[in-house]
Amino acid sequence: MSDMFKVQIDNFMARIVAKNPGESEYHQAVKEVAESLIPFIEDNPQYKEAKILDRIAEPERVMMFRVAWVDDKGQIQVNRGFRIQMNSAIGPYKGGLRFHPSVNLGILKFLAFEQVFKNSLTTLPMGGGKGGSDFDPKGKSTNEVMRFCQSFMTELQRHVGPDTDVPAGDIGVGGREIGFMFGQYKRIRNEFTGVLTGKGIQWGGSLIRPEATGYGATFFLEEMLKVKGIGIKGKVAAISGSGNVAQYATQKVHQLGGKVVTLSDSDGYIYDPDGIDEEKLAFVMELKNQKRGRISEYADKYKVTYVAGKRPWGVKCDIALPCATQNEISEEDAKTLVTNGCIAVSEGANMPSTPEAVEVFLKSKIAFGPGKAANAGGVATSGLEMSQNSMRLPWSKEEVEEKLHTIMVNIHKTCVTYGIEDNNFVNYVRGANIGGFIKVADSMLAQGVI
Ligand code: NDP
Ligand code: 2IT
Q: Which of 103, 164, 323, 343 has a Cα-to-Cα distance from 368 of 20 to 30 A?
């Protein structure tokens, strides 16, 4: 990159850091995008004159609110709730809700920012948003989770709606929490609408939405491998996490003939050299989604290795799908993966690779699919859920999976269009950032200075 661009990026980032102090994840996400976009904007001065990059990095609106609730012991608990309405240029704000003790403004702003580009890449009419709370669902009873969700939605309902802002799940928010929040919204507003996605199938949900993020990340991986003339069949996969995204990535990799040998949670990882098949995955799903236990119990049950306090990136693999959380692949981890022969990384999680790890992947020319492209299948299928809610007609499993597959193939094509470099190397980071940017930027131009 030329010195001129480096100076422009540094100046832009100095403004971002000064305006958003202490929000390190937000700085990280914006910098990655700025590095792709500043050279592109130089060639497309209409965006520069309209200060699109400065505008896109400033949320349209941020809500922060108190969420008080009563625990099972009768004690009052106080959490903080958030909703970031980042960009509505191409549709109502759309993006998940995260419940995790680490949640803060900077983390949700990074997620909302990435969501703007991701949602644009899906080709569906969805703006970008994100929200959540520092509430920790671990160790809470179902009644406590319900009371928290009801209190959270009592405030959030003022800010959302099917044509305004449509939240969904993320870490710590799955079908159970969406149900409690939907119930409270309906009760307060007296409206049965598509205000949330990820709903239960009997009350407005879409088939394949639970599967969509993990399936989509695997379809994206498949497309990246196709460029190299290979498939998933016979490949050994390391997957992190053991929640929604990890579970369905495991299922799809297995269905396509790959062998998933690791899963993890925040306490450690399991290594199963024989691979995680449908039966073992059913055990994981019951363990995680019903019993809400720890992944170490898999090692007890199937007599395999459990490594406490570590991530799975030291395990030899051909392909890697990080599906837990941000910054879970360090520079060292990335070097280990590449040295061990890993040829492709598809990010099921949002920003799981540190900037240093991304650099290692790009330099070593392995196929690296960044989250805003690779995990867009989740929100894309949320978009399909919104369509079905508007029509009041559901689609079949096959129809939704086919649409999801087509969307992922097209996102891959967009990334190739804008990310192709010398010797046919595809820089998916640049491809996703520019490919996601153009539609949002052009819509902002058309809608005037707002
Ligand atoms: P879940 O809550 O279902 O699962 C999260 C998994 O990641 C759990 O195994 C959890 O372990 C682990 N994890 C969470 N935080 C940490 C941490 N700080 N360190 C180590 N492990 C951690 O969430 P999802 O599967 O829905 O989300 C996973 C990732 O995918 C997130 O980055 C999310 O933003 C992203 N994503 C999700 C989409 C969706 O549709 N759900 C769509 C697109 C992206 P533990 O149980 O111990 O906390
Ligand atoms: O990060 C994400 O894309 C999600 N958590 C899914 C968002 C959605 O609205 O389905």
A: 103
